[in-house]
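Quick one, probably user error.
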């Protein structure tokens, strides 16, 4: 491994706040531009970055309206810091009056009869002034089964509804609430060029050095928009098209990682492993192991599995098995672990089980080169 790749690996691990480097979840959401909004992925991404993170601290993000679940990069739902949500939303999704949404919701499986959309929209927004479960909205407003999910999804994609997280950390039985009521004036759209320029600078700060291609893939935008947005940010090129904000160059050049070994258990769809184009992931996974981490690459470049990172490099994958109140861990490593690595793995597993309010069971480790 080259010294340059090693520097990028350690720097990126540091900028992603992995190894529990952050004091609070709000800092993480701001620095890495959110985490996936699904459970348990989002909570576990924060757990990997926040010191002494608790379920109560996670639920406060919703209760105190410090973060909002908003459709964002690649049309995935992200948990975004409240101060950034409107800008990210504006940069990554068309406005509500765009023809894109009309076409999307005439497709099979998503079809909403045009004559039903507007009256149902008004009825839902007048009812969901506090977080409401989908079944309650369905029964109260007599929404047909066939259009319930597409209708709620469309209203969220257009910015009229917000999702509020489940009380559990593993369930996804979310509620819906009027964005205007819940967020007040915090979700006003920003002009797209301004929003994209901000997002490009934000991406390079949290994920750089990275290429225009990586930003394009992560944001889910066109190559032309990605190029234009990054051009608005003062950057330096470090070779191979890798760009870093010019203001961060002195820190990057002088950065030295702490000598202690670090092991991270990243969840499926972690922000870091979903942060780069498929051919730009060498900083955290060796190319010959990439398929084991992402499966067969599809149209989106693959979905990252649960990952074992050791000193910033993927060493394997893990899977939880929950039965009742007990959790076991199945780990496949690509090299036989020594006593120190096994100890670190056991420690992170115990922390994960405690966070999920489960009793830790066994850790089964197999080696598959």
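Nope, works fine. Designed sequence:
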């Amino acid at each position: 491994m080259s010294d340059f790749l090693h520097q990028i690996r350690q720097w990126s691990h540091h900028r992603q706040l992995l190894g529990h480097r952050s004091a609070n979840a709000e800092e993480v959401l701001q620095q890495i531009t959110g985490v996936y909004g699904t459970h348990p992925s989002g909570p576990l991404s924060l757990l990997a970055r926040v010191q002494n993170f608790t379920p109560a601290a996670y639920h406060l993000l919703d209760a105190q309206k410090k973060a909002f679940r908003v459709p964002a990069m690649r049309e995935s739902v992200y948990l975004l810091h409240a101060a950034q949500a409107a800008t990210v939303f504006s940069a990554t999704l068309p406005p509500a009056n765009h023809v894109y949404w009309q076409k999307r919701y005439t497709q099979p499986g998503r079809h909403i009869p045009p004559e039903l959309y507007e009256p149902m929209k008004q009825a839902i927004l007048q009812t969901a002034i506090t977080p409401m479960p989908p079944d309650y909205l369905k029964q109260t407003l007599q929404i047909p089964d066939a259009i319930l999910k597409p209708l709620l999804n469309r209203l969220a994609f257009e910015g009229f509804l917000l999702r509020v997280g489940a009380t559990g950390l593993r369930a996804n039985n979310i509620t819906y609430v009027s964005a205007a009521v819940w967020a007040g004036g915090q979700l006003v759209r920003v002009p797209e060029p301004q929003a994209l320029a901000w997002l490009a600078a934000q991406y390079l700060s949290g994920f750089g050095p990275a290429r225009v291609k990586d930003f394009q893939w992560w944001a889910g935008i066109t190559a032309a928009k990605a190029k234009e947005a990054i051009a608005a940010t003062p950057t330096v090129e470090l070779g191979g098209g890798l760009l870093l904000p010019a203001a961060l160059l002195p820190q990057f050049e002088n950065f030295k990682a702490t000598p202690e070994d670090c092991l991270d258990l990243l969840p499926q769809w972690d922000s870091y492993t979903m942060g780069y184009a498929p051919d730009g992931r060498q900083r955290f996974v060796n190319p010959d192991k990439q398929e084991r981490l992402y499966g067969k690459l599809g149209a989106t470049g693959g979905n990252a599995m649960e990952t074992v990172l050791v000193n910033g490099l993927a060493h394997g994958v893990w899977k939880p098995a929950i039965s009742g109140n007990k959790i076991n861990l199945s780990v496949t490593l690509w090299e036989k672990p020594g006593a120190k690595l096994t100890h670190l793995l056991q420690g992170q597993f115990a922390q994960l089980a405690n966070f999920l309010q489960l009793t830790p069971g066994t850790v089964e480790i197999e080696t598959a080169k």
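The chain has a mean pLDDT of 95.
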